[in-house]
Amino acid sequence: MIRTYSGKGAVELTKLLIARRSEVEKLIGGVRGLLSYDIVETDDGCFTVTVCKDKAGTEQSLAVAKDWLKANTGHLGLAAPHVMEGKSLSHIGAATAHAA
């Protein structure tokens, strides 16, 4: 699942996510089946990439993210993120790339 945050408040959200990284890691780390979670800074905000073993995990991660955003970012005036999700067909990680 990819959630893209841009527009009003998105740069501030990016700063907040980094400043409260340990809190975010603890929340997302509790998602069942989580394989990885990344926050990527862009020119106008950020996007997050969540990879889970199954759809139940990505749905839980979306719910956790919505709850955290509601509780912590109301003052930013954020628009809803653009959400994309799908099934991973291939994964290449560092260990895979170096083994070749």
Which shape, going by the Cα principal axes? globular
Ends distance: 27 Å
> How many independent structural domains?
1
Which ranges are low-confidence, i.e. pLDDT below 50, for 5 or more consecutive residues?
none
Order of helices and strands: EHHEEHEH
**How many strands, what sense, and barrel or not for the largest sheet?**
4 strands, antiparallel
**If strands are numbered along the chain, what order do they take across the biggest sheet?**
2-3-1-4
State the name of the first-level CATH class: Alpha Beta
Helix content: 40-55%
What's the Cα radius of gyration?
14 Å
Number of strands: 4
Give the helix/strand layout.
Elements: E1 2-6, H1 10-19, H2 21-29, E2 34-42, E3 45-52, H3 55-72, E4 82-84, H4 94-99
Antiparallel strand pairs: 1-3, 1-4, 2-3
Your description of this structure?
With 100 residues, the protein is of the alpha+beta class. The chain has one domain: Alpha-Beta Plaits (2-Layer Sandwich). Helices cover 43% and strands 25% of the residues. The protein has four helices and four strands. It has helices spanning 10-19, 21-29, 55-72, 94-99, and strands at 2-6, 34-42, 45-52, 82-84. The protein has a four-stranded antiparallel sheet. It is globular, with a radius of gyration of 14 Å. The mean pLDDT is 92.
